[in-house]
Amino acid sequence: MPEGQAERARAQIDAIWRIESARVIATVARMVRDVGLAEDLAQDAIVVALERWPSTGVPPNPGAWLTATAKHRAIDLMRRGTTLEDRYAQIARDLGVASEGADLDAELDDDIGDDLLSLVFTCCHPVLPTEARVALTLRMLGGLKTPEIARAFLVSDATMGQRISRAKRTLADAGVPFEVPSGDELQPRLASVLEVVYLIFNEGYAATAGDDWIRPALIEEALRLGRMLAGLAPDEPEVHGLVALMEIQASRQTARTGPSGEPILLSDQDRLRWDRLLICRGLASLERAESCGRGVGPHYVQAAIAACHARARTPEETDWVRIAALYEALARVADSPIVELNRAVAVGMAFGAEVGLQSVDALAADGALDGYHLLRSVRGDLLAKLGRWAEARADFERAGSMTQNDRERDLLLARAAECATRVT
Amino acid sequence: MRFMLFVYAGETDPGPTLEIVEAMNRYNEELSKAGALLALDGLHPPSTATRLTFSRGGDRPTVTDGPFTETKEFVGGYWIIQARSKEEAVELASRAPVRDGTIEVRQIAEGSDYPPEVEEAARLSQDPPEQTFAE
Fold it and tell me: Please, which residues bridge with residue B81 across strands?
């Protein structure tokens, strides 16, 4: 086969792998009860595909073909009596080795949803450290290759490879069941899944690491995972809340940095550059979260706040009263000094700087944000609005001395200098 | 990456039968479940279309109502999908239940795909012209 054609075939099979791998792994994992082994078998199947498809052509339903091939491999493994490990013997007993052929193919048509959901919950199991959950999720559900994940998190391929194989071993050793958790277990486990998806999103969005290719790729991957979850667990308001939050935040992606990569504040962004399609999708997800008719969770509330900004065509149109109320709601479900500080900003915008200052001073008295430059920066801003220039200047200078970020320090000291010129 | 998939109906296209609509719904559902579908629409038949033809002179365009007998292929609808590569977009498109027709896969240009001066011009054109603020 000519070089170019072989390359094309390879790229096509790569694309099929990324589309199908999660489903193949999930279906096989239900059978062998071990996601690590399931992934190995799925990899075996794609190797067979790479050997055969370039000459035979891609079968009409490549996903079913890969799943069937992986399942037959699993059965071969057990038949051959490779009971090197007890778990293979156990699998063989569970399966009743007679099930083959027609039965197997019939199983392929079973509802894949539960298997995919089980795979998500297993990859995000709390027995794993967070970074391993993230890596495993990207690999098993995103179909990313180890070097791609390594690139995203600025570690070597070897380190990432070890992280992934250690994670698989941990899951097997801990005997983590391949299932969708139920009862009291469901909500905390779901929270763990949402945390992983949002971490992937933020790794792309906050741009702390990785290169230009990987950042948008991680944002898109997190969005894809979130939307997929929303389809698998449509009755969970927090899933829709997270999707809404990510869609709306992603809508500002091109507007939130300047030509040389400097951050642009929300109020200074060119709102015509916000992505209307993603905003519409985000607002629709928010409505779906509401229609679940259950109490509000932290992702939902954050999405509702993001939506207030998204709905405002100009900064002046922002509904700060609603945002202040939403921060109060957020404080009830996920209180933290940072949430309180944001709430104080919103209160200041909604009801005047004097009221905002009272909130900030209450927070300052509490002491939790003593070393946090944004507390001083917010206070300085409110004081400046009230014309209390000398105090404002002092706060901006303190904020400037606290931040580690040069660009931010310049900005704060410039504001301090500006206040100094106003002092009479 | 985002792609727009345009579907062109072939000459023997029977139009939307119940069977085709059901198959299309299943396909759309699959795209949605995979987290790939961003938007989609079907279009009214081309006989109801109107064309505007612009001349170089910058006069008002000529407006012509359909049907357009000289054109053999028409866009019947579109999908906007998110995919991780062109190949993935092509693979997803290849699963569409189209019996007779064509799908064209086009990548959607994002801001960063343009050269800097074009991007700058696009940005400027979005700023309100200064005279808006004049007394």
Answer: B3, B37
